Every structure is written in C-alpha cells, then in structure tokens.
C-alpha cells in the first residue's frame, strides 16, 4: 500500500533514523507473524502479532525504512485524524516492550485507512473465509480463576462477529483445530479480536442458570489476542492470562435447539441396595445439535454432587412421555451417560463446572433419565428436538431398575 504521507516521531532510535518531517508516497507493508507448534494432532499455527514495514518512496533522496513489531501482549492505541485538505489519517501508538513508536499515516481514500485498520484487527475476510454470524452484544468480560475483578467489563460493547473457514453448510464448519476461527468484538472506542485455534477438548462452556443469553467459556492461557483502542480507553485495558470469559455468542457452531430451566433436579443413586436421593434446587437443560449428533447438557446450581453433565442422544434411543400423577414427564429409557464430575480444588474445581461438546465424557452409566416439565407444551417442544419419535410410556418398569441409577430432571 502506498500512503499519501507518512510521519514517524518519538525518541526511539529507529524513529531518529527516519526523517522527522512528513514524507510523501511511502510504501507500507503489514506482515502477520506466526509460529508453528508441534502437537499430538499435528502442527498448529499460532498468531503472534504483526510486523509493520515502512519505506520511503522514490521522491526521497535517501532510502530509509522502519521495521516495527506489533505484539499481541499490549493494546494498540489509534486515532482517526484528518490531514491536509481533509484527507483521512490514522495515528498508531505502538509499544513492543522495548521501543515506543508514534506513526501517522495519511491516505488518499477512506477505504485505505479502513483496510489497514481491519488488517490489524483481523477483520479482513480471506478468500476461503466467511462471516457466520454478527449480533449485538451487551457485555463481555475476562476473568482469571481466583483472580481480581473481571477485566474489560466496563467497556461499552456493541457487536460480535464470528469468522471462520467457508463451508457449504454451517453444520460442516471446522471449529476444533481451525486456523481461521476468530471472534471480533467491537466496543464504542475499539475492537478486540479473539482467535480460537483450539485443540480437541480444549474449549469448554457453561450456560448461566438465571440469564438465558449468557455464555461462559473456559480457555487455556493464550498469546494471540489483539486489542485496538483509542487513547481515551488505553488506561482501562489490560490483558490478563485469560481463562474464563463471559459473553453472549457461541463459537462452537452448534445449533442451540432448546432451552429449559427447571426448579428441581433429582438423582437416585442405585449403586447401593437402598436408593439415595440427590436434589438440586435449580437446573438448566439444553439440547445442542451438530449435523445428526444431538447432546443434552444439564447445568446445576448448589448441587453437592457436581455442577454439570452432558451426554449424546441417538436415533436408536427410546423416549417415552407420561402424564402420570399430573406430571408432564419424558423418560429416556436406558440412557448412556456420565455422572457429574465431583468438585476438586483450584483449577480442577473450575474445570468440573464446564462441559466439552466435541469430546463428551465416556458414558459409563446405563439407566433411565426422566425429565419432568411444568407444562405439557414445554414437554412437547422438547420432544420435537429429540433424534427419535416419542412413544407413550410403557406400563412396565425399566428392565435395569434393580441395579441402576435413576435421574429425574
């Protein structure tokens, strides 16, 4: 890209080697830096910031250049300015830990400024990419387990876009081990770009029991996030070794089929001769679907035996409905599932509260699960999302009832 005028100023050595006055017709190149990490699943490419190169043009007697690293560890300060005769300009203040640079780019057209800004935020759509969703977002925060108050919560968030590799169908989109998946969140005075190059089992989620539009994501520490903000917000932004995020749009490319919040969750443990009853005050149950795979997720609150569970429903499963005793219930006969993970300590306690969609826990339990609804309408809506038709309840009890665990949701 050739800019109309470029100027670099400051006390750094490379700024001193560049002409202090505005230089016309400079050549600007932006390179994305990356590293390749070895993993059991194969090489994984990770974003590590940018390298910005500026070279004086043909109109300058002495050839000079600037080579500036832009690291993802610190925010990029920017301002939209107006140059001579009203030409669009962009001010960048970059701190790579060793050098601080202030650069002003003046462009012939507003589209040139917009493109450079989009390249820095990862907002440019590649040839093999597409935008899978763009929705308003009310809030977003990053929190370290056991750390200080959530970061970034005070910003005025506006919208979120999900970009990934193009596919014929959203259900076929690659989420795990994708080098294209990124989430771009705009706030009033800046942009945050979160790159989701995740391995199998790394991305875990939790749904809030009281707010149906809140999503929590548990992430491993990462080093490939980008924040661009105006100078007014620079003091408010800092990047932690983020692990826990609160936001309102799922990158898991699963279809959210049904949301139901129950006031009662009951488990009868049959591992001993006498059934032991487990109760949870509030439970949220949700069905998610990708292609032909349907999963049931359950999230608990103040449940002594765990915080969540998830398992796969198949077209070969048997589903039975009943109105017995005025209760509108649906039973999954001989369901295959894993019991909720017991809480651990530290990070283990946090991990047990989240479910993973691409690698569900091994279904070591086999027994009936009963879902009880407040109304018949809710039950019928739930039944429509199941992978197999629902039958009338059998008058015979489960053939596994004598040695099983019975879950009443």
UniProtKB/TrEMBL annotation:
Transmembrane segments: none
Domain DUF7613 stretches: 127-234
Pfam families reported in the protein's UniProt record: DUF7612 (PF24587), DUF7613 (PF24588), DUF7614 (PF24589)
Domain DUF7614: 271-387
Domain DUF7612: 2-122
Signal peptide region: none
Domain of life: Eukaryota
Name of the protein in question: Uncharacterized protein
């Amino acid at each position: 890209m050739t800019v109309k005028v470029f100027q670099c100023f400051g006390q750094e050595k490379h700024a001193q080697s560049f002409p202090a006055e505005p230089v016309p017709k400079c050549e600007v190149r932006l390179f994305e830096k990356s590293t390749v990490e070895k993993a059991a699943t194969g090489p994984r490419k990770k974003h590590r910031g940018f390298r910005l190169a500026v070279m004086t043009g043909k109109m300058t007697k002495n050839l000079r250049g600037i080579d500036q690293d832009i690291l993802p560890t610190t925010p990029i300060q920017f301002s939209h300015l107006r140059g001579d005769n009203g030409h669009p300009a962009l001010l960048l203040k970059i701190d790579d830990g060793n050098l601080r640079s202030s650069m002003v780019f003046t462009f012939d057209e507003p589209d040139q400024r917009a493109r450079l800004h989009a390249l820095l935020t990862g907002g440019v759509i590649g040839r093999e990419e597409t935008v899978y969703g763009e929705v308003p977002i009310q809030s977003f925060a990053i929190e370290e387990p056991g750390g200080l108050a959530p970061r970034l919560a005070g910003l005025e968030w506006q919208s979120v876009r999900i970009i990934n590799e193009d596919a014929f169908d959203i259900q076929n989109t690659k989420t795990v081990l994708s080098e294209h998946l990124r989430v771009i969140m705009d706030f009033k005075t800046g942009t945050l770009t979160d790159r989701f190059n995740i391995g199998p089992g790394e991305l875990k989620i939790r749904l809030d029991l009281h707010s149906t539009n809140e999503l929590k994501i548990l992430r491993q520490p990462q080093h490939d996030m980008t924040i661009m903000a105006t100078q007014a917000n620079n003091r408010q932004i800092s990047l932690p070794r983020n692990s826990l995020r609160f936001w309102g749009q799922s990158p898991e490319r699963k279809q959210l089929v049904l949301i139901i919040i129950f006031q009662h969750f009951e488990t009868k443990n049959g591992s001993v001769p006498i059934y032991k009853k487990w109760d949870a005050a509030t439970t949220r149950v949700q069905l998610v679907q990708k292609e032909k795979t349907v999963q049931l997720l359950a999230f608990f609150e103040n449940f002594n035996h765990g915080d969540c569970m998830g398992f796969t429903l198949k077209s070969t499963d048997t589903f039975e409905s009943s109105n017995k005793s005025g209760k509108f219930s649906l039973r999954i006969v001989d369901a295959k599932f894993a019991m909720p993970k017991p809480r651990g300590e530290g990070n283990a306690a946090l991990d047990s509260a989240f479910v993973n969609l691409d690698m569900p826990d091994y279904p070591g339990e086999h027994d009936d699960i009963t879902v009880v609804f407040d109304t018949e309408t809710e039950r019928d809506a739930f039944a429509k999302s199941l992978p197999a038709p629902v039958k009338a309840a059998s008058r015979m009890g489960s053939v596994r009832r004598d040695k099983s665990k019975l879950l009443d949701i």
